[in-house]
Amino acid sequence: MKTPAWFSTNRFFSILRIASGGALFSAATAMGLIAVLTGPSIAAPNDRSNAVHYYVSLGDSLATGFQPGDNEFTGGDDGYTDQLYSILKASDPKLKHVKLGCGGETSTTFINGGRCDFYTHGSQLDQAVNFIHAHANHISLITIDIGGNDVFLCIFNGDQSCLDAALASMSTNLTTILSALRKAAGPDVPVVGMNYHDPLLAFWFFDPAAAQLSEQMVVQVNGVFGSVYGAAGDSVADVETAFSTTNWTLVNGIPLNVGHICEWTWMCTGSPDLHPNTAGYGVIAQAFLDALQ
After folding, report:
1. Domain range holding 128?
2. Average pLDDT for residues 260-264, to the nearest whole number?
3. 1 in a domain, yes or no?
4. Where are the alpha helices (DSSP H) in the chain?
5. Distances in whole angstroms, Cα of residue 73 to Cα of each of 5, 76, 247, 264, 276
6. Cβ 40 vs Cβ 289: under 8 Å
7. Total structural domains in the chain?
8. Residue 47 contacts by C-beta under 8 Å, 6 or more apart in sequence?
9. Chain segment 91-149, per-residue pLDDT in tens
């Protein structure tokens, strides 16, 4: 793999679209900041072999499956939740997907609302809890990714004090979210979260030190995710490992982790965007399948 021809510093920051749900940053703002698989049977609280039951997916733009050109808030149809559902439905035809993610959602807006206006109950958390209550004993799986937008600015700027404060707030919010979901769903429904890949590894092409710092900060963030999900008794899809985030082994002159970002996200294209492409979302879907084993 060769360094992309477009990847000069000036070109990068003139076109970089740092996006969460489509447009967390404009290009001007960025300038100023410098599987064909078979899935496992999912746990069921009781026998629903003849009844419709639900996979509820929650989260930010990753949960919506956003890719460049999609709706900023509702995303697309090839995300990890869509691909995971397709795999699970192949062996469970009565499974239905309830996709509640919101592009750009933070852990705070997840609880309080204010980002997406299509929730009839005000916030994504309230929407999810109401749906789960309304379909008691018919929820088979809940997946969630949230918190990336809480910390992204801190990582982008390499600001450790910012990150420490954001992680404290995010940890509290995520604990609240998981508690509410568990109370609504009961003890037997799998709730699976995820940690994150590091799209800013693409900085390696013009500033290797910045890429290494972003990797270290993402690992710190993912450690907090592991602690919070673990304390709640919930599983974590290990996207960090799936994307080889900490593996700096050179492959054809480019670190493996950087190469995966180029292969599985839009960061090394003519219009850089941090979101996974369809293949990258497939990698995340597989991480969720592994967590469900």
Report:
1. 9-292
2. 98
3. no
4. 9-15, 27-33, 61-64, 80-90, 107-112, 124-134, 148-157, 160-185, 208-232, 239-242, 256-264, 278-292
5. 32, 10, 33, 21, 16
6. yes
7. 1
8. none
9. 999 999 999 999 999 999 999 999 999 999 999 999 999 999 999 999 999 999 999 99
Structure tokens at 233: 């008794």
pTM of the model: 0.87
Is 3 part of a structural domain of the chain?
Answer: no
- Asked if residue 2 is part of any domain, the answer here is no
The confidence band for 50, taking pLDDT boundaries of 50, 70 and 90, is: low
H/E stretch holding 120 reads: none
Q: How confident is the model at residue 49 (pLDDT cuts 50, 70, 90)?
A: low
* Radius of gyration in angstroms for the set of CA atoms belonging to the chain, rounded to a whole number: 19
Which tokens is 111 given? 């609880």
In CATH, what number is assigned to the domain containing residue 122? 3.40.50.1110
Average pLDDT over residues 61-72: 98
Residue 191: inside a domain, yes or no? Answer: yes
In terms of C-beta density within 10 A (0-12 exposed, 13-18 middle, 19 or more buried), how is residue 263 classed? Answer: middle
Residues in the chain: 293
Q: Mean pLDDT in the chain?
A: 88
Residue partners of 116: CB distance under 8 A and separation at least 6:
73, 102, 103, 104, 105, 124
Q: Identity (one letter) of the amino acid at 42?
A: I
pLDDT, tens digit, for every residue of 216-240? 999 999 999 999 999 999 999 999 9
Measured CA to CA, the distance from residue 114 to residue 239 in angstroms comes to: 28
Phi-psi sector, 207: left (phi>0), alpha (psi -120 to 50), beta: beta
Residue among 268, 261, 230, 224 nearest 246 (CA): 261
